[in-house]
Amino acid sequence: xxxxLKERLQAxxxxxxxxxxxxxxxxxxxxxxxxxxxQAFWEIARGALESPAKWADVLTAWVPLALVGAGMxxxxxxGLWNIGAEGQIIVGAIFATWVARNVHLPLWPTxxxxxxxxxxxxxxxxxxxxxxxxxxxxxxxxxGLGMNFIATALIIxxxxxxxxxxxxxxxxxxxPFPPNAWVPRLxxxxxxxxxxxxxxxxxxxxxxxxxxxxxxxxxxxMGKNMRAAFLQxxxxxxxMLSAFILCGAMAGLAGALQATAVYHRLIPRISGGYxxxxxxxxxxxxxxxxxxxxxxxxFAAIGVGSPRLELNMQLDASxxxxxxxxxxxxxxxxxxxxxxLARRSS
Amino acid sequence: xxxxxxxxxxxxxxxxxxxxxxxVGETLTEKAGVVNLSLDGTILLSAMAAFAVAYNTGSLxxxxxxxxxxxxxxxxxxxxxxxxxxxxxxAIGFVLTMMTADLSSFLGNPYVNLPGPYVGQQPIPFLADIxxxxxxxxxxxxxxxxxYLLIVLAxxxxxxxxxxxxxxxxxxxxxxxxARGVDVNAVRYTYTALGGALVGIAGATYSxxxxxxWSHNHTAGNGWIALAIVIFGGWDxxxxxxxxxxxxxxxxxGSVLQRNPAFQNVPTQIFSTAPFAMMILFLALTSSGLTxxxxxxxxxxxxxxxxxxxxxxxxxxxxxxxxRD
Lengths: 346, 325
Known about the structure:
The structure holds 2 protein chains of 2 kinds.
Chain A: H1 3-32, H2 37-49, H3 52-77, H4 85-102, H5 107-135, H6 140-160, H7 193-212, H8 214-224, H9 226-231, H10 236-263, H11 274-284, H12 292-305, H13 307-313, H14 319-345
Chain B: H1 3-31, H2 39-57, H3 60-84, H4 89-108, H5 133-138, H6 142-160, H7 162-172, H8 174-179, H9 184-210, H10 222-232, H11 237-259, H12 268-287, H13 289-295, H14 300-310
Helix pairs in contact in B: 1-6, 1-9, 1-10, 1-11, 2-3, 2-4, 2-9, 2-10, 3-4, 3-9, 6-7, 7-9, 10-11, 10-12, 11-12
């Protein structure tokens, strides 16, 4: 066996090993509740892939994950833990909802304004977390979480007070938007092609910024060593704020699309946990935007497939999250193990 | 004294107890230089496990034991992943918090809203009869009493004992601790596991003492609050406990206001989220430049003393891996 082939096989093994470990771990969890692991994995796979309608659902769920993942590849490059994406999605959806309820123009001008409003809302919320970090020295994990809690309270207040439907406020959200604020769908599926296109553009933008511009280079220098970057004359404060704003705009866009393309209304759980799941996506992607689309697709499939567990096996759909988390955890641990073994043998 | 006031104060002391366990536990971990970000999920999973074990075996103590072991196991993954395998501490902690939260939902599904065993009231003779202090602090139960002891014990251990000194050295200047013959990483493993066990106990305290039973996301958010009050309390067990009581007071204030007719139009979710938001605001205020300007109004001597009270300094080597070479 040639040396090169051996190296490639080893790299492949290190990729597959943690996934097998994660599947084994999840299988043990399933055995704990007396369920058949293989049947459960089969149900998840079938729930995600059995029909074109399901593929459309997977792609629809891919959009917010890819958007958040693309945005976070920018903040992570600068060494920032933008855990506030969840709140940025929510505020983006709120801004978009305000436009959808109050602007009565033909379809395309309305949609344009709705989407811009969503991006502005998310960017604004990200900027606030950035201000907390830069000027009040609150670590972005806590600033971001605080902003998430505030956004959650805000959306519930809006749905239960000023925006409550005529038949009374419930957790099922506001009245549907007027149809001129609905992002068109592909045929009879739930898939909004426009949303997919915008997510692709966001990933390309993040990739271009990080790999092809001086700005991206400086962000990455900050991520390596904030102090050294500052001493080299990089405007670290301004760059931190702009990274928060860019990531916020992408998360806000995700929120606007959830409201106008998926639900056609504002619901309390509009963010659907995509802010946190997006963070798992970008960690598993090794913080690199070029890997975000594939990882996001994988997570979207698990997310769409796992409700099937409730239907056919009377199991809680949160198993999907367990599987996702286990994969990321074992990939991280395997990367460390590989490095350690390599050092020991050299 | 108005019984309403006494009941409210007693409930603040009780609801703060799990945050005391988790906050002091994380303080020990961070003082040794490790950040265990997995608290929120760990508390959920251990709360669920404690209830499930107590429900199935009828033994409350077994519930607490299993919860402590789960907390210890999760914390150990953070320690091994970041120390031996050199992965980013915060990343491992975040992934663990997400995964264990989902695990608690999945495994806890059969136990949702079941009535089960719990730790009842165990007044301490004589002490319970002291006016005001008695009913507030000493008409609780052994778990709550243990939370008082933990504050004193943790402070004494950290500040007054030889091993405590060693632990602080490892968190501040690992290289010089190593030069004096301290096994830096062994100390870090020990306090991460110990802190994790206390976080697990915090979970059991929710499901078996202060927020009985189990439901999906039963304790969600409290782990993040515990992490925030460690910073708020400046890595000092007394002030961390103070943060836990302050948070309990904010929560109690919320439920008092909620019953006030003037606020009947405000959705209940606002009252449940406001304390979280206010906690973060407090953090922002105490660490901001505004506080610097306020402190500058005083003479340097007073300023230093005030600053030590208002905000603590993070252990210098917090979150940084230690290499022998």
